[in-house]
Design a protein that fits this description.
alpha/beta; Rossmann fold; three-stranded parallel sheet; 5 strands; 49% helix; binds L-tryptophanamide
Amino acid sequence: MSASTKKILLSGIQPSGRPHIGNYFGALKQFVDLQDTYESYVFIADLHALTSVQNGKQLSEAIVDVALDYLAIGLDPEKVTLYKQSDVPAHTELGWIFNCITTMPYLMRSHAFKDAEARNKEINVGRFDYPMLMAADILLYEPDVVPVGQDQKQHVEIARDTAEKFNHIYGETFKLPEPIIKKRLR
Ligand code: LTN
């Protein structure tokens, strides 16, 4: 199949510490398994990591570690477009536009927000808004599929809701992506 007729896959991983075996089986392995079937975009979500890492040196190192791990597990840069989120300003630009069509009560219903708030009331605004940047990460590339771990399922649903909401307000623009969730082994 030529590149232009392949379906599109997009996913990312947050560089806040070294990816572990759970990330590997939960999400990363799927990127490798699917790289021949899909036109793939896989990125390092460094702006998302800023919601929890505020040490520049630590973040720079984690970015390089994730890049090395991507290569080590067998992602082929000849086949897959590998990039760093902050190198593409459109992610934050579209994230802002999504902020303006999304309500606070809607975001307050997210599991990730409730969990974070239960642990610490003083969560930062970036943390609260995490799903809007993630919706932008996804919808910009018009992917057909978004392979993620089980813990990210709701974030992909939020991206779908946001696409629908935008399309409703401004006219048909964004494609609704399907999550691919790996079943737990047991
Ligand atoms: N939230 C994800 C990382 C992530 C992502 C994305 C995954 C940021 N943007 C877009 C898929 C699509 C995580 O913590 N693993």
